[in-house]
Every structure is written in structure tokens, then in C-alpha cells.
Automatic annotation (TrEMBL):
Taxonomic superkingdom: Bacteria
Signal sequence segment: none
Alphabetized Pfam families for the sequence: DUF433
Species of the source: Thermatribacter velox
Protein's recorded name: DUF433 domain-containing protein
Length: 74
């Protein structure tokens, strides 16, 4: 999956937070809703401009960001 087709950042849109391309739906919003127990179907109903592939892209994007993180043990 080419994440650039689905996820974008722009400093002029929501201070550069990663969003689903063509929307103002943040990757963070999708992750928080899923963490709260929302299903894909519930997200798709709540955000009509969202597609299943967008949710999958948000998850993949998050995994890539975390894979690049350096852990600091204190």
C-alpha cells in the first residue's frame, strides 16, 4: 500500500498532523476511535468520506512511524 496515496501532511491543515488525503480526518482520530472500541463499520458510518482503505492506511502509517522511533530508557 502506498501510504502517500491515502495519508498526507500539510502545515496549513491541522498544524501538519497526518490526515486522510482530501479530508480533515486525522490518523490520530482514527486510532483513538479504534482504541475506544469502534469498529471499521462504525467509523465508516460516522465519517462518510472515509473508506476502509483509509483506515488500513492509518494503521500502516502508525506502524511505520513507530518502527522508526528510538526508545529512550530512563
Amino acid at each position: 500500500m502506498d501510504l502517500k496515496e491515502r495519508i498526507t501532511t500539510n502545515p496549513e491543515i491541522l498544524l501538519g498532523k497526518p490526515v486522510i488525503r482530501g479530508t480533515r480526518i486525522t490518523v490520530e482520530t482514527i486510532l483513538r476511535k479504534l482504541a475506544e472500541g469502534a469498529t471499521f463499520d462504525e467509523l465508516l458510518e460516522a465519517y462518510p468520506s472515509l473508506h476502509r482503505e483509509d483506515i488500513l492506511a492509518a494503521l500502516a502509517y502508525s506502524a511505520e512511524v513507530l518502527a522508526g522511533e528510538e526508545l529512550i530508557v530512563s
